[in-house]
Structures are given as structure tokens and as C-alpha cells.
From TrEMBL:
Nucleus found in the keyword field: no
Domain J: 21-86
Domain of life: Eukaryota
PANTHER family recorded: DNAJ-LIKE-2, ISOFORM A-RELATED (PTHR43888)
CDD domains, A to Z: DnaJ, DnaJ_C, DnaJ_zf
SMART domains in alphabetical order: DnaJ
Zinc finger annotations (CR-type) as residue ranges: 146-228
UniProt source species: Clohesyomyces aquaticus
The keyword Transmembrane helix is assigned to this record: no
Protein name according to UniProt: Chaperone protein dnaJ
Residues in the signal sequence: 1-18
Keywords: Chaperone, Metal-binding, Repeat, Signal, Zinc, Zinc-finger
Region of interest called Disordered, as start-end residue ranges on this chain: 396-416
Length: 416
């Protein structure tokens, strides 16, 4: 008796273990939206597809389980039953003759999402659709800080209303005119007794070999629709401009092929100040070349010459880079100051082994602006100072450079 009880308990545990929670399996919360469920299916079904994991039984089981979880959760009724009664409820629902939701063969379901016949076709001769390339531009700030964002592309997708059959009722007949070949052979008489055989596209089915009595109202029988699809975009710190990010099998879909890859070229937007605080930094106007950043700082004549100034430049993440000179420190126009480690973070793929983090340099170019307007009395003051010192210690650069003093009347250049 005890043995039987133990066996029974054992079986219960087995059942519980076998049936993994559908939400957990798809990595979702209980309140996941339809979009999130689809997204999870897209990601996981590609990951566990047997074509990608040859000989791996666990992956195959996961692939089947993910399809089942999708079928149950995407249907409102079965999802409600599952939420209330779990796996047991679903089993009873099936036994009780409840509408079996959309029960898909896992490969059919896969083909509904990615086109083709449900296989990637590595060596299987499956046709592959063309890759799709798009440019996505993000501000320099995102390349510096890293960010996860989204972008949307419009693409051709297998019509979900008819599941790519093109038929409202699911019935697709073989064309009776061409017998499904899509081609017909016509005999043309060229002259009495002289015939020519011409092979042409079947006019009845348009060369498809199949006809549909009731075309799907959503796609009009074309089996595909155009629709926007949103993808997550992970911008990693220091990614180079123009880097290519590949989304496997996310290009245009068609029942006739397996979708190719969507390739994103990550570009940089022109700098402009955003609305939010963190978008309003001086760093917005940095220019980037590889791992280095460039910045132009303007100094007045007084600052360039006499020193005693400080500038706080807000970097792309809001931290401050302080530029300064003490009194008496001269900055020549167009001098470039190189500040190490204030450039771009170096992308992890380009870091040398054993180093977790490194930065390029910030190049600050100083531009000196001379005043073109001056208060009259100020001009007088300066003038008299110049005159005073010029008489005392002014040096004629012409003489210094060994230039002859006559006969050209020389204006005389000053050092001061
Ligand atoms: Zn349709
Ligand atoms: Zn035909």
C-alpha cells in the first residue's frame, strides 16, 4: 500500500517536472502582452530550432515545448484556462472536446513566423529570402553611454490570418488547368501540318499551380502582408560608427522561402540638443574619430595670454572635464591639448585581452578670439601701456631677422 502511494506521489512529481511553466519557458511575466508572447516565440524558436542544434535532443524538446506554450498563451480562452488551472486544466480542456486552440505542428508554426517550410535549410535545399539592410541613426551620446532602444521597420510578413495559405477557409486546390505545374504547353499551328509547342505560364493560376476559391480577406490571397515590426537595439559602449548588427531571419518573409537576415547599420545622427537635461551637454557637440573625441574651446585674448581661467565642459554622460590655466600660463591659438581617457570608451570587441575598460583621448583645440570692439577709454589705456613698454623694450623683428631697414619704409613689427 505504502509502495503504491509512493509510486503515485512519484508520478505526480514527474508530471509536475515535465510540464514546465509556459510563462517561465518563454521568459515572460503573467501579464505579458500578445506582442511580448510573439516576440518571445520568435527569439526562442530560432534558438532551439533543431536545424541549429543538430543532434541535441534537449533543444528539440524545447523547440516543441516553446511552440506549445505559444499556442496556449496566444489564445485567449486557453490562456485563461491555463492561468486558472494550469497544465491539468489544459489537459482536461482537450479531453473535454474543447476547441483545441490553434494546435500547430511546431514546424508549421515556425514557418508561419519565418516563412519557408519551417526549416533553416542548412543543406536542406530550402530557399532563402534576400537579406534586408537598414540604417539606424543614434546620437553620439548613445555610442558613448551604451543604450537599449527600439526601432521599427516595415517588412513583408506571412499573413497570419490565413497562415500563409492565401485562402480564407484554408482550402487550396491544385489548378486543374496545369495540374499544379504552373506551366502549360500550347500547340500553335504555324502552317498547315506544321506545329510549334510553346510552354507558357498557366493563365488560370498565374503560374502558382494552385487556385483558391475564397481568397483571404486580409492579404487578398497574396499570402503576405506588409507590416511594421519593432526590434530591440542594443547599442554597446564604444561601438564603431557604421557597425553592422544582424537580426537572423528577420528580413522579408514569404511562404516560398525562409526569411533572410535583417542587417542594421548603426549610424550617428547630426548633433543637436535634446529636450531632457541629460541630452543637453557640451558633449553633444563633440566630434568622434574612432576612439578619440574632439572639442573646440574658445578663449578670449586675456585668457589665452594671461591665464587664470577655468572651464567646465560637460561630457556625454554629464561628468565634468575641467580645463584651466593658472595666471601666467599662455595658450597659443590653435593649440591642441590631449586629455587621455576622456575620449570614447573602447568597444569590448576591440579591447586587448585582460582589460575590461579603456578610453581614447579627448583633443581640445583652443581658438582665441580677439576683441573687435573696445570701449574708447579702454582702447586708450591699452594703447598707452603698449607705447610705454614698446619704448622700453620693443624689438624690431625686421632687425632681428636681418632684414635691411631701407629703402622700403618699414612699419616695424613689435614683439609685444
Ligand atoms: Zn491571408
Ligand atoms: Zn494552373
Amino acid at each position: 500500500m505504502l509502495l503504491r502511494l509512493l509510486l503515485f506521489l512519484g508520478c505526480m512529481v514527474m508530471v509536475a517536472l515535465c510540464a514546465e511553466d509556459f510563462y517561465k519557458l518563454l521568459g515572460l511575466n503573467k501579464d505579458a502582452s500578445e506582442r511580448e508572447i510573439k516576440k518571445a516565440y520568435r527569439t526562442l524558436s530560432k534558438k532551439y530550432h533543431p536545424d541549429k542544434n543538430p543532434g541535441d535532443d534537449t533543444a528539440h524538446e524545447k523547440f516543441v515545448a516553446v511552440a506549445e506554450a505559444y499556442d496556449i498563451l496566444i489564445d485567449e480562452e486557453t490562456r485563461r484556462i491555463y492561468d486558472q488551472y494550469g497544465h491539468e486544466g489544459i489537459e482536461q480542456h482537450k479531453r473535454g472536446g474543447g476547441r483545441p486552440a490553434q494546435h500547430h505542428d511546431p514546424f508549421d508554426l515556425f514557418s508561419r513566423f519565418f516563412g519557408g517550410s519551417g526549416h533553416f535549410g542548412h543543406g536542406g535545399g530550402e530557399r532563402r529570402g534576400p537579406n534586408m539592410e537598414v540604417r539606424v541613426a543614434v546620437p553620439l551620446r548613445d555610442f558613448y553611454n551604451g543604450r537599449t532602444t527600439e526601432f521599427t521597420v516595415e517588412k513583408q510578413a506571412v499573413c497570419s490570418a490565413c497562415e500563409g495559405s492565401g485562402s480564407e477557409d484554408g482550402h487550396v486546390e491544385t489548378c486543374d488547368m496545369c495540374g499544379g505545374r504552373g506551366m502549360v504547353i500550347q500547340r500553335q499551328q504555324l502552317a498547315p501540318g506544321l506545329f510549334q509547342q510553346v510552354q507558357t505560364h498557366c493563365s488560370k493560376c498565374g503560374g502558382k499551380g494552385k487556385t483558391i476559391k475564397h481568397p483571404c480577406p486580409v492579404c487578398g490571397g497574396s499570402r503576405v502582408v506588409r507590416e511594421p515590426e519593432t526590434h530591440e537595439l542594443h547599442i554597446e559602449k564604444g561601438m564603431p560608427k557604421g557597425v553592422r548588427i544582424t537580426y537572423e531571419n528577420e528580413a522579408d518573409e514569404s511562404p516560398d522561402w525562409v526569411a533572410g537576415d535583417l542587417i542594421v547599420h548603426l549610424m550617428e545622427t547630426d548633433p543637436h540638443l535634446g529636450q531632457q537635461d541629460h541630452e543637453r551637454t557640451d558633449g553633444t557637440f563633440f566630434r568622434r574619430r574612432g576612439k578619440d573625441l574632439f572639442w573646440r574651446e574658445v578663449l578670449s585674448l586675456r585668457e589665452a595670454w594671461m591665464g587664470d581661467w577655468t572651464r567646465n565642459v560637460t561630457h556625454l554622460d554629464g561628468h565634468i572635464v575641467q580645463l584651466s590655466r593658472k595666471r601666467g600660463e599662455v595658450v597659443q591659438p590653435n593649440t591642441v591639448e590631449v586629455i587621455e581617457n576622456e575620449g570614447m570608451p573602447i568597444w569590448h570587441q576591440q579591447l586587448p585581452d585582460g582589460i575590461d575598460e579603456a578610453f581614447g583621448a579627448l583633443h581640445v583645440e583652443y581658438v582665441v578670439v580677439l576683441p573687435d570692439q573696445m570701449d574708447k577709454s579702454m582702447e586708450k589705456d591699452f594703447w598707452s601701456v603698449w607705447e610705454k613698454w614698446r619704448k622700453k623694450m620693443g624689438v624690431s623683428l625686421d632687425k632681428e631677422n636681418g632684414r635691411p631697414e631701407g629703402p622700403m619704409p618699414s612699419q616695424g613689427h613689435d614683439e609685444l
